[in-house]
Design a protein that fits this description.
Length: about 290
């Protein structure tokens, strides 16, 4: 699994470096590159490739779409670390972007990475029909805006130090973390112009992957090693974050995570033997330590 992730990271970074090289240089490029190339598992791209292989989408096309997703992901991490958000100084084992370059530069580098994602998806190098590009851009916009990642982050911040129900925590985590995974799960179906019902099914799979990912992230925060994780741990309790672990306890949350893996497995097992790649990725997500 690590070897595959390294290969995806290498190919994605190569694509992004070439893409950026073609552009006119500005001073914002340096902090943008810092946020993009400071590491990162590229797990969202891996999910995209796992699902894309079920629908026979070319690897190069998936790497390009994944690069756009990684731009949005890097942007969300830069902004997440800002003092007005989760106020973190270390990310991926290095000073957070605002620590290295200052707050205003970090905000603008983040904004520029967001728009670069749309630039990549609308570019001719994507190699898919224009109508599919529009559908992809429409979907990723919905997944990242107030109905998705930004909306989820708003809920996450507003739930601090409050008693929040399981239903509301799940809704918040699906938006904050799940929506970008949902995009990765439906992008191949959008390209193949599959029907709405099947797209909805894969959107829900993405939401469950997001929940699983967030449970693992919360476990790392609770019991992980900050050196290995590359970020401060033990922060959720201090900030009074509403998490499934704080509500259900560690044991029940791990049970819930295994239930999510089973639920996703049952939904994808009829898609041929490549579906085992996705199941392997899900187990990696739950058992990761960074
Ligand atoms: C609209 C995209 C967008 C952002 C603005 C700041 C913000 C609103 C949202 C924050 C969303 C966020 C950081 C959710 C947490 C998701 C999460 C657990 C991220 C860690 O992902 P990894 O472990 O990171 O894949 P690496 O470093 O491996 O890339």
């Amino acid at each position: 699994m690590q070897k595959e992730l390294n290969k995806i990271a290498e190919d994605t970074n190569l694509f992004l470096k070439k893409f950026i090289k073609r552009q006119k240089k500005t001073e914002l490029i340096i902090p943008m590159q810092y946020g993009l190339f400071s590491g990162g598992k590229k797990i969202r791209s891996k999910i995209l490739i796992d699902i894309g292989s079920l629908f026979n989408i070319k690897y190069g096309t998936l790497i390009t779409i994944g690069a756009a997703v990684e731009c949005i992901h890097a942007y969300s991490l830069i902004h997440d670390d800002l003092p007005c958000m989760d106020d973190d100084s270390i990310r991926r084992g290095k000073p957070a972007t605002h620590i290295k370059f200052g707050e205003s530069t970090a905000v603008l580098a983040g904004n520029s990475l967001l728009t670069m994602a749309f630039e990549i998806l609308s570019h001719k190098i994507l190699g898919i029909p224009e109508s599919s590009k529009i559908d992809l851009i429409n979907k990723i916009s919905k997944c990242t805006g107030h109905l998705g990642v930004a909306g989820g982050q708003f809920l996450d911040l507003s739930y601090e130090h409050k008693k929040i129900s399981r239903r509301k925590i799940i809704e918040m985590e699906i938006k904050k973390t799940g929506k970008l995974f949902s995009f990765c799960c439906v992008a191949p179906l959008i390209i193949k112009k599959r029907n709405k019902k099947e797209i909805k099914k894969f959107e829900n799979i993405g939401a469950d992957i997001g929940l699983l990912f967030q449970v693992a992230d919360d476990l790392i925060d609770k019991r992980g090693n900050s050196f290995i994780a590359g970020k401060k741990t033990g922060k959720d309790k201090k900030r009074g974050k509403a998490t499934l672990i704080s509500l259900l306890g560690e044991k029940n949350t791990i049970k819930y995570a295994n239930y999510l893996i089973l639920k996703i497995t049952n939904k994808i097992k009829n898609y041929g033997k490549s579906s085992k790649n996705l199941i392997e990725t899900l187990n990696y997500i739950l058992n990761r330590n960074k």
